[in-house]
Each structure stands twice: as structure tokens, then as C-alpha cells.
Design brief:
- This protein is mainly beta.
- The protein has a single domain, classed as hypothetical protein yedk fold (Alpha-Beta Complex).
- Helix content is 12%, strand content 43%.
- It contains four helices and 16 strands.
- The strands form three sheets. Strands 2, 4, 5, 8, 9, 12, 13, 14 and 15 form a nine-stranded mixed beta sheet that branches. Strands 3-1-10-11-16 form a five-stranded antiparallel beta sheet, with no helix packed on it. A two-stranded antiparallel sheet has the order 6-7.
- The longest helix has 8 residues.
- The protein is globular and about 40 Å long.
């Protein structure tokens, strides 16, 4: 599943893309987004920063509390589960993405393969969000089965929401929104690189 994506547009450009108000981020966000890091999200008519990943409480072998794990992806077949249901039914959002990455290659030598929209600096991915005591507002991407282009690299991909489907995703009924959680039917640009999947985060 997606554990890395890029946003190569400014906060103002993202707000213009969604025709929305941009909340003051306080500082520039990094263009590479990893689980547990903040990034721009469109929710309730505003572009605002949210941590990528809903916090999942964990305990150590002796029952001691551990640092929460950011659960950054929500599978479509799990949206009715206790962990995701309330967010899916009441707090859907759109996550702007320039391109998303999947790891490709043999274990220990995996490289980054990027997927983007041909000729477009941004596209929108379906998301859900919640308020958390640990990190404040946090979002997760919705994942569905991979289309024919992504399938050779990974069996799942983010739900890409085209412009005409933004409103049904954000304000439609849960049933209407669920019907949008399908593999992308259009063409994606694929960029296979020699960049190692694991590298130091900036």
C-alpha cells in the first residue's frame, strides 16, 4: 500500500486547485510525505494540515504504552469496521497528490516506482479524517484494488477521485461514497527509478 507520496505545489496552488480557503500552515510542508508527517488536506471547505495516519495505540511486551502507530491507509473492505466507520460516514476529505510511490524489486534492493497523472501537477485521492488526542487532526488514504497499471507493482492503490466526483465523495451518503471506491479507469504515468525505497528522510 501507499507509504510515500509527493506534493510539488504550494499551499496557495493547492487551495486554487480545490477552489478552497487555505488555512495558515505556519511553515512550509515537505514535498515528500511519509506516515506520521503533516501534509495538506481538503476538509470542510478548507485546505489545512493533518498528520498522515490515524493513531493506533500500542503496548509493549510488558504492557507498557508505546508510541502510537500512524495507520495511513484504510482498505475499502475495512471501512465498516469499528476503527474506520465513524470517519468514513462523517468525515471524508480529499488529499492532494502530485504522485505516489510503491516499492518495486527484490527485498533489500527495492526501488521507488512513481505513479502520477499525465500532464497534471495535482490530483485528488479519497481520504477520511479524525481528531486525535495524540496528533490533532489526522487523515488516512482510502485504498482499493490496483488497476492494470499498478497491479504489477502492488495489488492495491489509492482511490483517485476525479473532479466531477469531489462533491459526491465529500457530501454524499456513505453508500454513494463507497461506490466511488474503485480502481482508477484512466491512464497513469509510471516513473521507475533507481532510487532506493529506504533512505534517510529529510
Amino acid at each position: 500500500m501507499c507509504n510515500l507520496y509527493q506534493i510539488k505545489s504550494s499551499q496557495t496552488e493547492i487551495a486554487d486547485f480545490f477552489d478552497a480557503i487555505a488555512q495558515d500552515f505556519g511553515s512550509n510542508a515537505a514535498d515528500e510525505v511519509y506516515p506520521g508527517y503533516p501534509a495538506a488536506v481538503l476538509a470542510e471547505g478548507k485546505v489545512r494540515p493533518m498528520v498522515w495516519g490515524s493513531p493506533l495505540q500500542r503496548k509493549g511486551a510488558k504492557g507498557q504504552p508505546l508510541k502510537p502507530k500512524p495507520v495511513n491507509n484504510a482498505r475499502t473492505d475495512k471501512l465498516k469496521s469499528f476503527f474506520w466507520r465513524d470517519s468514513f460516514e462523517n468525515r471524508r476529505c480529499l488529499i492532494p497528490v502530485s504522485r505516489f510511490a510503491e516499492a518495486e524489486g527484490e527485498k533489500g534492493k527495492m526501488t521507488r516506482t512513481w505513479f502520477s497523472m499525465p500532464g497534471e501537477p495535482l490530483f485528488a485521492v479519497a481520504g477520511i479524517w479524525r481528531n486525535s488526542d495524540e496528533w490533532g487532526e489526522a487523515s488516512s488514504m482510502i485504498m482499493t484494488e490496483a488497476n492494470a497499471q499498478v497491479a504489477p507493482v502492488h495489488n492495491r492503490m489509492p482511490v483517485i477521485v476525479t473532479r466531477e466526483k469531489w462533491t459526491p465523495w465529500l457530501t454524499g451518503t456513505p453508500h454513494e461514497a463507497f461506490d466511488l471506491c474503485t480502481p482508477f479507469a484512466g491512464e497513469l504515468q509510471i516513473d521507475r527509478t533507481d532510487d532506493p525505497w529506504f533512505r534517510r528522510r529529510s
